[in-house]
Specification:
Distance between the termini: 73 Å
CATH architecture: 2-Layer Sandwich
Strand content: 25-35%
CATH topology: Yope Regulator, Chain: A
Mean pLDDT: 89
CATH class: Alpha Beta
Helix content: 25-40%
CATH superfamily: YgaC/TfoX-N like chaperone
Structural class: alpha+beta
Number of strands: 6
Length: 122
C-alpha cells in the first residue's frame, strides 16, 4: 500500500518550522528532506525518521522498525506526530546530526577513439 498524498501533506505541514522541507516520491512512497538532507521516509502512511544518537536521546522510549522490507532500522514515530513543536525539533536535530551529502560527480566522458582509415591505392 502506498502512502496517501494527504498524509504526506500533513507531515510536511507539521514539520515546516524545522528548516527547508521538501519531499520526493520514490517507488510509491516518499523521502522527506530537511535542509537538503534525507531525514525521514513516509511508507504506508507511517513516519520513519533516520536514526541518530541525539535523536534517540531526544525521543527517549524509541520504537524502531524498518520502513520497508530489507531497509535499515528507523525511528517509527506514531504518538507524537500531532505535537508540531516536538516533531519539528526531532527533524531539526536529525538534520543537524546527519552528514552533508557528497556532491554528485559528473560521469566521466569516454574518450572517443579515432581509428585511422585504411585505404588501398590501386
Amino acid at each position: 500500500m502506498s502512502s496517501e498524498q494527504s498524509f504526506v501533506d500533513y507531515i510536511v505541514d507539521q514539520i515546516e518550522n524545522a528548516g527547508t522541507i521538501a519531499y520526493r516520491k520514490m517507488f510509491g512512497e516518499y523521502a522527506l528532506y530537511c535542509n537538503n538532507k534525507v531525514v525521514a521516509l513516509i511508507c504506508n502512511n507511517q513516519l520513519f525518521v533516520k536514526q541518530t544518537a541525539v535523536g534517540r536521546d531526544f525521543i527517549g522510549d524509541v520504537v524502531e522498525a524498518p520502513a520497508y522490507p530489507g531497509a535499515k532500522m528507523s525511528f517509527l514515530i506514531e504518538d507524537k506526530i500531532e505535537d508540531r513543536e516536538w516533531i519539528s525539533n526531532l527533524i531539526r536535530i536529525t538534520a543537524k546530526e546527519l552528514p552533508e551529502q557528497k556532491p554528485k560527480q559528473k560521469p566521466k566522458q569516454k574518450k572517443k577513439r579515432i581509428f585511422p582509415i585504411k585505404t588501398k591505392i590501386l
